[in-house]
Design a protein that fits this description.
This protein is 16% helix and 30% strand. The protein has 147 residues and is of the alpha+beta class. The chain folds into 2 domains: 31 residues, no CATH class; 87 residues, Immunoglobulin-like. β1 and β2 form a beta hairpin. The longest helix has 14 residues. The radius of gyration is 25 Å and the shape is flat. The N and C termini lie far apart (85 Å).
């Protein structure tokens, strides 16, 4: 019985896979993006419905006054400028994996959204932004007479 190898490239793909896994395991996101990117940028869920877009920003520990939202040139900017919590003088922070007191995220929006009717609420550490879509305008058919 003959055994056929289908690796015609001349190197071991298992070793390549191990090398890629090792690289991913050892890479530090902060080395790529700088600073504390992963610790200070909140996660966002974006869900599009038939008549609106909903954005949910996970930003615990803030107040609604900490946020600033604005749209300029079809770009939605979500920013927070809260006050970081400080530890007691006799406490030592052993691990700090997140701090969302200061961040800025931007999203390019299409012209299909009604920017004048955006609503936002902040409850239980989640900022929810609802952006309704514009009413669909029906295209009217116009008959042109040939003279």
């Amino acid at each position: 019985m003959s055994t056929y190898k289908f690796n015609t490239f001349g190197f071991n793909f298992d070793d390549l896979g191990k090398a890629v896994d090792e690289f991913i395991d050892n890479i530090k996101v902060n080395d790529v993006f700088g600073g504390d990117f992963t610790k200070s940028t909140p996660a966002i869920n974006a869900t599009e419905y038939d008549d609106y877009l909903a954005l949910e920003v996970a930003a615990p520990g803030l107040t609604k006054e900490s946020f600033e939202l604005h749209i300029e040139n079809d770009v939605l900017t979500i920013a927070a400028n809260g006050t970081p919590k400080t530890a007691d003088d006799n406490a030592k922070i052993k691990r700090k994996e997140f701090d969302y007191t200061r961040f800025k995220r931007t999203f390019k929006l299409s012209k299909e959204f009604n920017y004048q009717a955006i609503k936002a609420s902040y409850e239980q550490g989640v900022l929810t932004i609802t952006i309704p879509k514009k009413e669909a305008t029906e295209s009217s058919k116009i008959k042109v007479d040939i003279v």
